[in-house]
Amino acid sequence: MDDIVKIQLSPSVEDYLKGIYTLTERGGPASTSALAQTLGVQPASITGMIKRLASLGYVEHLPYKGVQLTENGSIEALRILRRHRILETYLQQQLDYTWSEVHQEAELLEHAVSEKLISRMANVLNDPTHDPHGAPIPTESGDIPEAHLLTLLDARPNDLVQIEAVQDEDPIKLQYLEESGLTPGTRATIVKRNSFDGLTSLTVVGSSQLTPVSHELARDIFVSKVQD
Ligand SMILES: [Zn+2]
To answer: Which CATH number goes with the domain that contains 28?
Structure first.
């Protein structure tokens, strides 16, 4: 037996911590309604879990504002994110999963695999820094590069942008993005945005085709602006 007793967190605790991390990445606490939406549960049902997480020292509840992770909560959230993102990368690179399939599989496996397996997978992959959707993978010691927080909605006509990451959850959106060539590393020029419906039209560098991106999809595409 190890001297250090490792507390085994339940899958739902892990999902809560990961959800809060994702919502608070942009700064500021996560509202309980946003958290309920992220986790796909009723707002009323999360109060008990938030109290439990607070008593375990993982979150702070700020009245009327929402919840945020404590330092210990962040450590756990980053550990789960690392597992999730290593799994996604492994499934794609070693087991020929497509990038639209890996998220659902990783959601299940992240709660079950041992630290040893994750570290072996990371080794085989030469310690990847980003997952198939462009999200940074926390290191074993819990460091993570700053996430790209600008979305396509922040870009204006004539801007040249580079796609850095995309939301990983919806397989249908991911398929569309792949078919349109809108994957991490791709550069594109914003051609126009309709004021009435927010539709963005862009051209991928090297192509002459105009690609339409809905307002909803643009929110899920993280970009950096390229200085020219
Ligand atoms: Zn994922």
So the answer is: 1.10.10.10
